[in-house]
Amino acid sequence: MAGSKTRSTYACSECGWTTAKWVGRCAECHAWGSVAEVAVAPSGAGTRQVAGPVTSPAVPIGQVSAEQAAHHPSGVPELDRVLGGGLVPGAAVLLAGEPGVGKSTLLLEVAARTARSAPGSSAPQRTLYVTGEESAAQVRLRADRTGGIHDDLFLAAETDLGAVLTHIDQVRPRTVVIDSVQTIGASGVDGVPGGVTQVKEVAQALVRMAKSRNITVVMIGHVTKDGGIAGPRVLEHLVDVVLHFEGDRNSRFRMLRAVKNRFGPVDEVGCFDLGPDGIRAVEDPTGIFVERHHGRVPGTCVAVTMEGRRPVLAEVQSLVTLSPAERPRRTTSGVDSSRLAMVLAVLQQYCGLRLHQHDVFASTVGGARLSDPGSDLALAVAIASGHVVSAPPAGVVAMGEIGLSGEVRRVRDLPQRLAEAARLGFAMAVVPADPGTAQGVRRAASDRMVDGMRVVEVPDVASALRLLQVDRRTAAALELVQE
Question: Is 98 annotated as a binding residue?
Fold first, then answer.
């Protein structure tokens, strides 16, 4: 009798972490005041499980048809790129992102284009859009603005899980969009919609429905203030694909990344432009991140970074001025501050640029975020050019990771980076020297041609600055001319 009593435990309402006693701060997500007492049903450790009926007999894996799990296009090429070819029937997709980034706009566009796909097909490509955050009239207004009206696109405003499943039974769609999973509640389950128990139950029911009926379910998920997906961690394990939609509030540019994908790669990135008339795919985002100057401008250099498998060119700009304060400022926008501090130390130690009394401002064009170490060399060239007030040659890109001893290290996917720079018409690329052929800092830089673009290999940062004439000698010569 004692084993059948209901016991209590403490669980975090944010992430679902459990503990035997109450604590003020969750040890998993570090949220304060989120741990509360919950009742736990008695375990059935004393019962024995017996064999039961099976849904379908086991067959050799070679006899299982793979046609039902084939990708079908969503109508949005950039989304298909991230997913590995398109939506998969029976898959559960979770799309997370900050408020206002454009998740609902993107999925409404996907729902409309999915409904318009295969117009001559005898079977209707029906799509169901379930909104729990807005009214049906509000979603209709957005669809009018973005051109998302179609006869095979059905709309329902529901917050009850049972009602959502009923709509699916009546409409029989091929694709279902849930906006959002945190607003849907399941009756008979403890907790409020958005809580750990409710989110888990709703997600499990939607995933079971997707697998049993072979339809695609795309759910929108909220995020916490730290950027993680709100709700229990098991939510990410239940779904097949986890996507993150991110972007700067001051920019129209948005990026879609795959964090988990059971049907494709996880290193692809999709680019979108969020405008007043909806969201559109950006197949060539380089023009957004590179400023077109009429002449040579000091303090600028173009880097070639890798966003997943896609090479993207981004311009780095810097401004170096004498500081009136005892502690010079180091301000960044789109550039990692720790990488900037390391590059400044290397420039001062190995290149003779005295920057300890100067304010340094570094930023990128178009709101790009440079997290790739391969952009270190472009950052160093931009800072040196801004310090000596001498512009590098026109049409130059620089790529390479800088080490603490001043060497320039090789970066991954160098042929793809060079091919992208050559396609966009750049005349010269400064790249790291091959470690097998480099013979020290005094070795002459080797030249070669790649698709009509001159490629120069340099062993260290000092050699790169001398090649581009933005080193200490240039600064001294400019001071003599000014005198």
Answer: yes
The answer to whether residues 260 and 305 belong to one domain is no
Q: Of 229, 248, 283, which one is at a domain's C-terminal end?
A: 283
pLDDT classification of 43: cutoffs 50, 70, 90: low
Per-residue pLDDT, averaged over 229-257, amounts to 87
Give CA–CA dist 225/345, Å, rounded.
34
Helix or strand or coil: residue 108? Answer: helix
Residue 104 marked ligand-binding = yes
Asked whether residue 235 falls in the same domain as residue 307, the answer is: no
* pLDDT at site 318: 96
Q: Report residue 184: phi and psi, to 5°.
A: -90, 130
Answer whether residue 49 is part of any domain. no
Residues 76 and 143 in one domain: yes
Q: Work out the average pLDDT over 110-138.
A: 81
Q: What is the DSSP letter of 370?
A: B
Structure tokens belonging to residue 356: 């300890």
For the chain, the domain total comes to 3
Asked whether the CA dihedral 364, 368, 370, 372 is positive or negative, the reply is negative
Q: Do 216 and 203 have their domain in common? A: yes
Q: What is the CATH number of the domain that holds 315?
A: 3.30.230.10
60 is an annotated ligand-binding site residue: no
Query: What are the CA-CA distances from residue 140 to residues 129, 164, 275 (Å)?
Result: 11, 19, 18
Whether 110 has a binding-site annotation, put simply, is no
| 308 has binding-site annotation | no
Q: Please tell me whether residues 397 and 423 are part of one structural domain.
A: yes
- Confirm whether 205 is domain-assigned: yes
The answer to whether residue 365 sits within a structural domain is yes
Is the Cβ–Cβ distance between 429 and 399 less than 8 Å?
yes
In a domain, 57, yes or no: no
Residue burial 450-464, b: 16+ Cβ < 10 Å; e: rest: eeebbbbbbbbbbbb
Question: Does 385 belong to an annotated binding site?
Answer: no
Residues ≥6 apart with Cβ < 8 Å to 291: 300, 315, 317, 365
Same domain (yes/no): 373, 461: yes
Q: What is the pLDDT of residues 339-374, one digit of tens each?
A: 999 999 999 999 999 999 999 999 998 778 898 999
19: alpha, beta or left, given left = phi > 0 and alpha = psi -120 to 50? beta
Residue 279 CA to residue 79 CA, distance in Å, equals: 12
Containing structural domain, residue 413: 288-482
Residues 398 and 257 in one domain: no
101 is in an annotated binding site: yes
Cβ proximity of 362 and 383 under 8 Å = yes
Q: Is the backbone peptide bond immediately before 180 cis, with ω within 30 degrees of 0?
A: yes
Beta strands in 262-345 (DSSP E): 269-275, 278-281, 300-307, 310-322, 330-333
For residues 235 and 188, membership in a common domain is answered with yes
CA–CA separation, 368 and 315 (whole Å): 9
> Per-residue pLDDT tens for 136-145?
999 999 999 9
